[in-house]
Structure formats: structure tokens, C-alpha cells
Design brief:
With 388 residues, the chain is an alpha/beta fold. The protein has helices at residues 2-15, 29-55, 79-94, 124-140, 204-213, 217-234, 246-251, 254-263, 287-295, 311-318, 337-353, 365-373; strands spanning 20-26, 61-64, 69-74, 98-100, 104-106, 110-116, 146-148, 173-181, 187-195, 239-244, 269-275, 299-305, 322-325, 356-359, 378-379. The protein contains 12 helices and 15 strands. An 8-stranded mixed barrel has the order 8-9-10-11-12-13-14-15, surrounded by 5 helices. It has a 5-stranded mixed beta sheet with strand order 2-3-1-6-7, sandwiched between helices. Helix 5 (204-213) packs antiparallel against helix 6 (217-234). Residues 152-162 have low confidence and may be disordered.
């Protein structure tokens, strides 16, 4: 990495371009090693490296420079672009659980320091000297965040304009993922998943994270709903699952949500999915909204059941038509006593509530057969291919 740094620094100087360095420091890595041994720690390091590399361009460089630290060099990159890449890296590390040996999974987060390089920072020691205080500030401020070297926490402005045409509903698009009947392999419906225009808003975590920071999450969420409902018409889908944040449902009049669906001018059956892990506080605040949606003929699903802390309370109060089991309880469930027990317990709960049960995260033949064996009849996952 020192050799690559020297080469890129010389190129940057000749071409008058800028370069950004990111230091990715895994949070609480020593605790992970203590709890799961070095084999667990090594598995996490390998997966972190894979996730980082998957986001980078061919011209970028990454190297592990310490026990739990990775240095990323971004040639020909402006400071604002570097901050956005840092957020994408932070998100991709924390958003999906890490699978460890013996079918254990954990959540891992990272503190990231960002540094816009100058000629005075053209060697590795200088970069680390400037960037380590940013890492220390991130750790002291709660971890799992980005700090730009030399600036106060969160003082780095993100180049976001939400009147940008790229964020209009016309420039958002959707991919579809089928929901399958396990008995015969028929598609019972499709979940439509939003994608942004090319650039910093292409991936949903980036789009929603920035919308949340700018306090316009509901506005962007409704634009995504418009884009997905239009896609349902274009694709001539019969049953369409669309996602909304709980806060959007709470803060939006039901007639406004229904108007968006009606504008699509489709004969499709609509299902609004509410993520259980994003329900905060008393779920009864959504009762009226959910009831009105159902009275209008819209199905309601509670998504990611099992990931949050108040699943049973939310299920009882909101009375959803559909319960979707979080994929972490499904993927690799066979032989995992905790996952097996959780799945078996959810089947009678769904029946008692009169709700259909869909297992997410079916990725292998083994997952498929096991889910069927516990009495679940509908499923979704990469076993049937990627969203497209």
C-alpha cells in the first residue's frame, strides 16, 4: 500500500487531481475475538475485506494495515465523494450480519476516518498521524460513524440537494423479487425494491440514510412508493408488495397513500410492507392507519419479523394480513437449534392471528426443504434468483 500511495500521489500531483484516504476501524473487534476466538475474528476480517472491495473501483486500493484496520485509497476523488464512499462502506459493513463458524452470526460496525490528502500527507505515517484522531473521536462519540480528519463530528457537509431531478420519482426505478408458493413453485406475487439513479443515491441505504439526515425521509419514501407502483403497471404484476417506513405511514394521511396507488391505474392487489425492526415505541400509533388501509382493500404485511424487540406486541395490535420472517432466522436454519425453534414457534402464532406466513432468506435447497418441513407454505429469497 505504501508503494501504491507513492505512485498515486505522484500521479495526483502531475494531473492536478485530488485523492482521499479512508481508514476503516472495526468497532469492538477485541471483544469479538474474545467471544468467538481468532477463527471468528478471521472470518469477519475476510468478509469485511470482500465487502469493501466489492464497492471500490478498479483504480482504488485497499489494504489491511493493522489487526482491525483497513486503509482505502481513492485516487481522483473529491472530498465530498470520499465522504459519500465512507458512508457506503460504513453501511455495507453494518447492514448485514456476519456468519461465523458453527452457524453463529454477529453484527459488526466500523468507525471510519476520512482524509483529503495534501502533499504533506503523501506517506503512510503522515496519513495515519492525521487520521487516527478522527477515529478516536468517532469511537468516543458512539462508534459506527464517519469523522473527517481535522473537523468536528458530523461537520462535513454532504453534497445533497433533494430538489435534484435525479431524486424525482420519475428517476427512481424498481426491481422485482418473486414471492413463491413452496408446494408448486408458482409466483404468488412480487416485492418491488427501489433503486436510485446512478451516483450516490443508487443504493437504498445511501438514499434513505441521507434522506433521514435531512429530515425528509417520508417525502423520499413516498416518491419511492410512486416509482414502485408505476413499475407494477409496466410489468403487469398482479400482486405487488411495496415498502413504507413506519414513520411515513404515521405522518402521512391514508388517503394520500391510497391516491398514489390509484394514480398507478392498476388492477393489482397492493400490499404495504412495514418493517418490524423499524417500529419504535408503541405500535398502536399505527393501528388506525393500518386499519384504514385494510378497509380500502390494501393488504398489510409486517416485514423482518424477529429482528426487532416488540414483534409479538406489533403483530397483536396491527393484525397484519401477512407476516414475513426475517431472513436471518431462515438462512442456514437446518441444524441451528435457535433458528429452528424460532421458525417452529412462528407457525402457530401466524395461524392464531389469521395471517399468512412468508419465510424470507431462502437461499439453498436445504433452506427450501427445511422451511417446508416446519409447515411454512410461502417463501422468498435468492434460491429463485436475484431481484431483477
Amino acid at each position: 500500500i505504501e508503494e501504491r500511495l507513492h505512485v498515486e500521489s505522484q500521479r495526483s500531483k502531475r494531473q492536478s487531481t485530488s485523492m482521499v484516504a479512508l481508514l476503516v476501524d472495526l468497532d469492538d473487534f477485541k471483544k469479538l475475538n474474545d467471544n468467538f476466538g481468532y477463527s471468528g475474528g478471521d472470518a469477519v476480517l475476510v468478509e469485511v475485506a470482500r465487502r469493501i472491495r466489492a464497492l471500490l473501483r478498479e483504480v482504488d486500493h485497499v489494504s489491511r494495515i493493522g489487526g482491525d484496520e483497513f486503509l482505502v485509497l481513492l485516487p481522483d476523488t473529491r472530498r465530498s465523494e470520499g465522504v459519500l464512499m465512507a458512508e457506503r462502506l460504513r453501511t455495507t459493513i453494518s447492514i448485514r450480519r456476519f456468519m461465523l463458524p458453527k452457524r453463529t452470526d454477529v453484527i459488526v460496525t466500523a468507525s471510519i476516518g476520512a482524509l483529503h490528502l495534501t502533499e504533506a500527507q503523501a506517506d503512510l505515517d503522515a496519513i495515519l498521524r492525521f487520521i487516527h484522531p478522527a477515529i478516536a473521536l468517532s469511537k468516543a462519540s458512539g462508534k459506527n460513524r464517519i469523522v473527517v480528519a481535522g473537523e468536528r463530528l458530523d461537520s462535513a457537509p454532504l453534497p445533497v440537494q433533494f430538489n435534484d431531478p435525479s431524486l424525482s420519482s420519475e428517476n427512481l426505478w424498481a426491481v422485482a423479487h418473486p414471492i413463491m408458493r413452496l408446494l408448486d413453485g408458482d409466483a404468488l406475487g412480487h416485492e418491488l425494491l427501489i433503486r436510485g439513479s446512478l451516483g450516490p443515491f443508487q443504493l437504498p441505504p445511501d438514499l434513505y440514510k441521507l434522506a433521514l439526515e435531512h429530515r425528509i425521509l417520508s417525502m423520499i419514501d413516498l416518491r419511492c412508493l410512486q416509482a414502485c407502483s408505476r413499475a407494477a403497471v409496466t410489468r403487469e404484476l398482479k400482486v405487488c408488495h411495496l415498502n413504507l417506513f413506519p414513520t411515513t405511514i404515521k405522518n402521512t394521511k391514508v388517503k394520500q397513500i391510497l391516491a398514489i396507488l390509484e394514480q398507478a391505474d392498476s388492477a393489482a392487489t397492493w400490499c404495504i410492507e412495514i418493517s418490524e425492526n423499524l417500529l419504535v415505541g408503541d405500535p398502536s400509533v399505527l393501528q388506525h392507519h393500518v386499519q384504514k388501509l385494510q378497509e380500502a382493500g390494501v393488504l398489510v404485511a409486517i416485514d423482518h419479523v424477529g429482528r426487532g424487540r416488540s414483534s409479538l406486541e406489533a403483530l397483536i395490535m396491527l393484525k397484519p394480513d401477512i407476516i414475513k420472517i426475517d431472513g436471518r432466522y431462515v438462512t442456514g436454519a437446518h441444524g441451528d437449534i435457535i433458528k429452528e425453534t424460532s421458525l417452529r414457534r412462528l407457525v402457530p402464532v401466524a395461524k392464531a392471528l389469521g395471517a399468512r406466513l412468508i419465510a424470507e432468506g431462502i437461499e439453498t435447497e436445504e433452506d427450501f426443504e427445511f422451511v417446508k418441513s416446519v409447515g411454512i407454505t410461502e417463501g422468498q429469497g435468492y434460491f429463485w434468483g436475484q431481484p431483477a
